[in-house]
Amino acid sequence: MSQNDSAAGATQDLPTIADLHQAATRIKPYAHMTPTFSSTGIDARVRANLVFKAENLQKAGAFKFRGACNAVMSLDNESAQRGVITHSSGNHAAALALAARLRGINATIVMPDNAPAVKKAAVASYGARIKFCESTEQAREATVARLCEATPMELIHPYNDARIIAGQGTAALELLAQSPQLDAIIAPIGGGGLLSGTAIAANSLGIKVWGAEPANADDAARSLAAGRIIPVVNPDTVADGLRTSLGPLTFAVLRNSIEGIITVDEAYIVEAMRLIWERLKIIAEPSGAVPLGALLQHGAPAGVQRIGLIISGGNVDLDTLPWIQA
Amino acid sequence: MSQNDSAAGATQDLPTIADLHQAATRIKPYAHMTPTFSSTGIDARVRANLVFKAENLQKAGAFKFRGACNAVMSLDNESAQRGVITHSSGNHAAALALAARLRGINATIVMPDNAPAVKKAAVASYGARIKFCESTEQAREATVARLCEATPMELIHPYNDARIIAGQGTAALELLAQSPQLDAIIAPIGGGGLLSGTAIAANSLGIKVWGAEPANADDAARSLAAGRIIPVVNPDTVADGLRTSLGPLTFAVLRNSIEGIITVDEAYIVEAMRLIWERLKIIAEPSGAVPLGALLQHGAPAGVQRIGLIISGGNVDLDTLPWIQA
Fold first, then answer.
1. Which of A78, A286, B93, B249 fits as disulfide partner to B88, beta carbons 3.0 to 4.6 Å?
2. What is the pLDDT of residues B29-42, one digit of tens each?
3. Which tops the pLDDT comparison, A320 or B194?
């Protein structure tokens, strides 16, 4: 890993392309090599040649398994035997639970008590211990601290962790091997783990990267413009996976490695999600449709024709689709 | 092709495994080699090891492209220049339109005037000429006959055609190459083109085949039991692709080549469809979920553990999902 970017407040070394390659080797026995998809109809619509990387078809339904698996499988035996812990109401929770089960160690997931039943069930189905807390960042972190004081465990943060970033970057490594002709990649950004890993992978080949985030949760765009992390507070967006704020480590990676952040209005996120379902015949969650939403709303960035888009996940409540009024 | 089974009223030679291999070679430059999917959660639910063949990810969203492509690409130049014609309100219409476009010839599609707008748009988007008629079998056939009298064209029937059956059978050929350990395959049955081709492919390797159809459209089960074609009349089933009756050719193939037909209640079809969306993260239309519905309702056939299921298509009206009350 390269030297600590202390100016940005990062508390760990920044992950490098070598870390990504090690992660790819480490997770290979466990993770899916996900397929890519294309659609002449969607290409005609956005006047670009798109390649969709289907991380919705990844284990546990999202790219999150890559980072969680890399973190869990890289623990030494002593650390592993203490078990792992995280706080998450979303895809990272299920991913860490599954990775821990595959290594045969305990996982503790701190979830807000108002998390959707389907997410609680997914985490429980992988055999993890669930601890509920109030639905605030402070309550989550306090609960983790209290549990770790009683029983020391390895904290695997959802994104502000070099092992996680390196794991998430393996999706872009695969995509760039599957589609060597790409000019650029667009990935969604919430906490920044996926986009950081994507940038490290793409930069190593001189390929441009943009992030895409909901206009209603544009903290990444504002943070990078301001040069400091501006947290988001209760954003109102259908893209439930992108409601988190950057961490010091992801901020440190992203400030020097991407072309910019494209913000997307809610209507375009929903339209993009539906277009992926209709044309590609695969289930994308709203967050996973944000990169296509960016192209629908703004068109392709200037000078860029062949674009890889990462469909980050496919975990959706099928009872409440955003284009159907209940 | 083998000799005509005149006792069954078949008007063409029955397709053979050699015809399937020729079809596979013929369509290879145009059709997708579709991927397979598995789910430990679904396997646990039905107590069997399932491999789903994702023909919903085929061109034009259904296995139908295989047969249509084989038929169109096997025409001699003189026949091809006259153009092709069919009657269909569903996936065969779009598939034939696309295959004709790929060969650069004209396609005429006779559709009932009450066909869904989305299906009309799909056919039109491939450049086919659409002729509307009343929504009865007689009106469709009379319209085709009238059009062909004015301008001779090559009729490509949706299923009662050896070229179509051979093309549809290439899905099972691929599946058996992708998953050589299967004990059996279950495919949906409407007109019988897919199931006939599947049986020819599987029989050549000694692998058992079952058909699955809605209990509300159980004409195939009744026809095979009676030893004669019993047409279905206006069946009430969510599986819109399986409302057709057997033809003489598919009846002749199926009567000697399958283990049986499993009938499935509507609730199990909907549950299976939802399970595929939720666990496999891919869009199956109701007809494509009928084989899994058969296993949910009845369990695996005795003595069969590793089962291939063909997800026949993924063309769904996303505004009206069968598990959401409007």
1. B93
2. 999 999 999 999 99
3. B194
Distance, in Å, from the CA atom of B91 to the CA atom of B62, rounded to the nearest integer, reads 7
Determine the residue type at A139: A
> What residues of A are in contact with residue B277 (Cβ under 8 Å)?
283, 318
Nearest residue to B315 via CA among B159, B130, B102, B89: B89
| Catalytic annotation present for B89 | yes
Q: Which chain B residues touch A326 with a CB distance below 8 Å? A: 324
d(CA A73, CA B271): 36
Residue B3: is its pLDDT beyond 50?
A: no
A321 near B CB under 8 A: yes
Angle of helix A266-275 versus helix A286-298 axis, rounded to 10: 110
| pLDDT tens digits along B185-207 | 999 999 999 999 999 999 999 99
Q: Do A41 and B125 touch (CB under 8 A)?
A: yes
Q: Which listed residue (A53, A59, A64, A208) is catalytic?
A: A64
Q: Which residue has the higher pLDDT, B52 or A9?
A: B52
Q: Is the pLDDT reported for residue B2 higher than 70? A: no
- Per the annotation, the verdict on A64 as an active-site residue is yes
Closest to B59 measured CA to CA, from B84, B30, B35: B30
Nearest CA in chain B to A317: B278
CA distance B321 to B326: 9
Burial environment of residue A7 by CB neighbours within 10 A (0 to 12, 13 to 18, 19 or more): exposed
Task: Please tell me the distance from the alpha carbon of residue B307 to that of residue B184, in angstroms, as a whole number.
Answer: 5
Q: What is the pLDDT of residue A326?
A: 57
Please state, as a whole number, how many other Cβ atoms lie within 10 Å of the Cβ of residue B227: 10
Tell me the pLDDT band of B120, cut-offs 50, 70 and 90: confident
On whether any CB of chain A is under 8 Å from the CB of B27, the answer is no
Name all domains of chain A by residue range, CATH numbers in brackets. 6-62+162-325 (3.40.50.1100), 65-155 (3.40.50.1100)
Q: Which chain A residues touch B61 with a CB distance below 8 Å?
A: 281
Which residues share a beta bridge with B308?
B51, B185
**Confidence check: pLDDT of A3 > 60:** no
Could you give the dihedral angle defined by the CA atoms of residues A184, A186, A192 and A193, in that order, rounded to the nearest 10 degrees?
A: -70
Q: Is pLDDT at B227 greater than 80 in this prediction?
A: yes
Burial of B277 (0-12, 13-18, 19+ CB in 10 A): buried
Residue bearing tokens 């789903």: B52
Question: What is the structure's pLDDT at B44?
Answer: 96
ipTM: 0.92
Interface contacts A/B by beta carbons within 8 Å: 45
Contacts for B146 with CB less than 8 Å, ≥ 6 apart: none
Both ends of chain A: CA-CA distance in Å?
50
